């Protein structure tokens, strides 16, 4: 039993073991400005066992005190959203503020926003995997879970915006008694396939990556079944019979955990013959997910770009949507990761200051791309000399929705530029604030695109869209659904990819044990004196680095 | 399920279960494990395996494994997805339900491309995950090794090699000696689960 105390390693890590002697400018020792020194990926002088104990401990230990209130609030908001959706279904889409000419508004804004948020998860798990960015291992499970829950929220909106929800199955080419088929020439149908494929592939990727970790949880639950838990002595002295009863208790929860995790792990036994197929499948999935993630938001942008409306009919939309999606997704990962990092003991040893800084840099890059796209839209509207196009863009910035446009510019173009300064991208509360601003800004970007509808070709039908309370609470409710699913994930599934984190640690490298093999192959960074056997004490500067 | 109800742990169950499945040994770290695997491979064993909590770098080569066939499965699945998408869009749009909308042709490769791409990716992703499981003969919820209490720690931080009794070169005594000479400890026999 002593070998399975999850708190022990966490406590040692929190006590600062192995955190000696680093420059305070490097925050936790990972923000080393010298580019020739590769900072460590896992802090706290951890070995494999302490990694397993910490990550599994978040699941196996008593539910943290903050979790229940957080879950209650999220589930309450989710319930509110569900009630709004039910109200919509029994009443009709008239309960939303939609009217002629603004026939798409918050529903599609929310759809595009949520799909975009999902993109960061796939980017982290697929593109950063192909680019061999090892720092991704501590955030990829987390981000992939976010992807799946975001796409669930996204898929809700097109489903309910069709009006007669019971006919939503007609989105798919399902044989039916009317002998009709969907229109394959419409980008709206491409969208069904793109988002459907994206959800399925993300789910497969997430689940496959989790199989070894589920097997770890299974084995730990099995080991606990075999060791009866001693709860006594509960009686007063002289009441030894109670003590005897409690000695034999085997927690039924461990049996449930062993069954559920065991079922999901599918009998994974960490065999190298299995790993051989697994690693290839994982790499290939990353390979096909990379064009997939770029295609999904491109197809979503076709919903607009393939139409012939001014302001929508532009070739810049696909790359601009993809950049915006990654931008908003990274912001959402940070919004979720920063509180989790504070709340779960030991998480800072995996999600280091360097990881957070890298994410801030990606936000600045993609934010600048988005800003460039806004500029290009204006330039092309002017250069194209199309009066309708010019009118549309002038109306976006100075028309009735000017407030939405300038909120978007402030949050998306100006706010991410602060990460050029080191103080900004190392100050955690400040990063959290910026991540929230980016989330808001990206929602407004989609809103600005949709409200282009308000000024159509016929000035007599121009109108101003205002949301109803149903619009607002459905959107807020979708955030509740997202948070509820996320809290359940944090409680019951491994938040960090245990086997992947172990695999980037120095002790996973078989050649690190070859005494007298200095400068061996792929890990021989001669300048920092890697002599191959200092695995436990010299991990900070040598192997397993960024 | 991955476990059965019989109590285990504690004393080794030598001779208690069914016929001999194989012999398992524990190794201290991935370095020793890699060299041990090379020696077992060179000794000519075919039915054996290495168990480690991470995919050890270079281990497939050390074991003499071939490249995974999962890519072939994915290739066939991608071709199947591509064909399905083309046939579906052509038959449904041009043959079975031809409706002219916006003066567009009933079927054209340009319009078919997004769905062709998506279905190719979808099918090959199924090929990757289910192909990996099929090649690994998973799910298999029971296995003789799961009856060993020490084996449960492989999912945490232990490294093991198991040589199966069905290997033509297997003899319990010589395998035990081989594993011990390579640095194996806690050498134990594993019985078939009954």
Question: Secondary-structure blueprint of this entry?
Answer:
The complex is a heterodimer of chains A (546) and B (194).
Chain A: H1 6-14, H2 48-60, H3 67-91, H4 106-130, H5 140-161, H6 187-225, H7 240-247, H8 252-265, H9 272-305, H10 317-343, H11 353-383, H12 387-398, H13 402-414, H14 422-426, H15 428-451, H16 469-492, H17 498-503
Helix pairs in contact in A: 1-2, 3-16, 4-5, 4-9, 4-10, 4-15, 5-6, 5-10, 5-16, 6-8, 6-9, 9-10, 10-11, 10-15, 11-12, 12-13, 13-15
Chain B: E1 20-27, H1 30-42, E2 48-51, H2 59-63, H3 70-96, H4 109-135, E3 159-164, H5 172-181, E4 185-191
Antiparallel strand pairs in B: 1-3, 1-4, 2-3
Helix pairs in contact in B: 3-4
Cα separation of the termini of chain B: 14 Å
Provide a count of the helices of chain A.
17
Number of strands of chain B: 4
Strand-residue proportion of chain B: 5-15%
Low-pLDDT parts of chain B are 1-15
Q: Radius of gyration of chain A in whole Å, from Cα? A: 26 Å
What percent of the residues of chain A sit in helical stretches (DSSP H or I)?
A: 55-70%
The low-confidence parts of chain A are: 1-13, 516-546
- Total beta strand runs of chain A: 0
Q: Report the radius of gyration of chain B as a whole number of Å.
A: 25 Å
Helix content of chain B: 40-55%
The outline of chain B comes out as: elongated
User: Largest sheet of chain B, if any?
Assistant: 4 strands, antiparallel
For the residues shown, what is the average pLDDT of chain A?
Answer: 85
Global mean pLDDT of chain B: 89
